[in-house]
Structures are given as structure tokens and as C-alpha cells.
Design goal:
globular; mainly beta; 1 helix; Lipocalin; about 5% helix
Length: about 170
């Protein structure tokens, strides 16, 4: 996957998008001037662990740490044809009775995609028993060992929802 395609895949996340719920069945968006929902790290404590799946033509891996110090941390890696395409560093923080999801991308040599001070941030929309919705990004707990992540992205002028399916793997 080229750098341009990867950036196109995720660049949308820095945009302020608002779509009707009929458009994307597994993601939600905050309306303009809508306050983020209340939430805590306890709502996503089940996320802690090592997850592996297939997407974007390769193998995807995420490792989430347990909550300590008001945050959880994740590393993500996409590998295609046994070569790393990119990494992500993600934080999930509890702030003012809500959650913030933040992400930065890195090339295989750890050069950042975003400018030094820039990051992608999602605000919390809703917490349900098996889904946690951020604006354009959803965590779905299928069961204790299966996770789906849905992300809305724009590429080539088209906006769509992509599903990433993971299985919990023992380290």
C-alpha cells in the first residue's frame, strides 16, 4: 500500500464530518455543537490484550494495555507480504467524564505521517453494552475473543465504512 493510499484512507479522520445514521450502519457522528457522551475507561476494559485479523490486503495487529493513569494505549501494525506498511500509536483517555480517542500514524522507519503537533481525535458519541461509538469510529465487542472496529473514511471522493475484524490471541 502506498503512502498516499494510506494517508487517503485515514486523512478523513481529521475532518469534521456529519452523516445520517442510515448512511453508515455501524458508526455514529456527533452533531455540530453536540457535547460528547459520558464514558469511562471501564466501558472499554475488555479491550485490553493482543488482537489479530486480516484487512487492507494483509495482517492487522493491535495490542491494548490495561487502564493506568487515566489512559489505555495501543500499538497497531499492518503487514502486507511480510513487510510492514505502517504503524499507529493510539491513546484512549478519560477526560472530564468522557473519553477521547487519539491516533498518530508512522511509516515503517517511524517517520510520522501527521505533523509533529497534529493528531487525529475522535470524541465519544454513545456507550452501549457491546458497542462504544466515537464520531466516525466504533468498537464492537462481539464476544470475549472477537472484536470489530468500524471506521468511516474518504478515498477518491467516496466516503465509506470499513470493518476490521479481530480475534484475541494469547501472547
Amino acid at each position: 500500500m502506498s503512502r498516499a493510499l494510506g494517508i487517503g484512507l485515514f486523512l478523513f479522520l481529521s475532518l469534521s464530518l456529519s452523516y445520517g445514521q442510515d448512511t453508515f450502519p455501524n458508526t455514529k457522528f456527533l452533531e455540530e455543537n453536540q457535547a460528547p457522551a459520558q464514558g469511562s475507561l471501564e466501558d472499554l476494559s475488555w479491550l485490553s490484550g493482543y488482537w489479530k485479523g486480516e484487512a487492507m490486503g494483509g495482517i492487522i495487529e493491535e495490542t491494548w494495555t490495561p487502564a493506568i493513569g487515566g489512559s489505555m494505549m495501543c500499538s497497531f501494525k499492518l503487514t502486507v507480504n511480510n513487510e510492514v506498511v505502517f504503524y499507529e500509536f493510539v491513546t484512549l483517555t478519560e477526560e472530564n467524564e468522557t473519553l477521547q480517542l487519539r491516533l498518530k500514524h508512522f511509516h515503517p522507519n517511524l517517520d510520522g505521517w501527521e505533523d509533529k503537533e497534529d493528531k487525529i481525535t475522535w470524541k465519544l458519541v454513545e456507550v452501549t453494552p457491546n458497542k462504544v461509538y466515537f464520531s466516525g469510529f466504533t468498537f464492537e465487542k462481539v464476544d470475549d475473543n472477537h472484536l470489530n472496529i468500524y471506521v468511516v473514511f474518504e478515498e477518491g471522493g467516496k466516503t465509506s465504512e470499513m470493518k476490521f475484524s479481530y480475534q484475541r490471541v494469547a501472547l
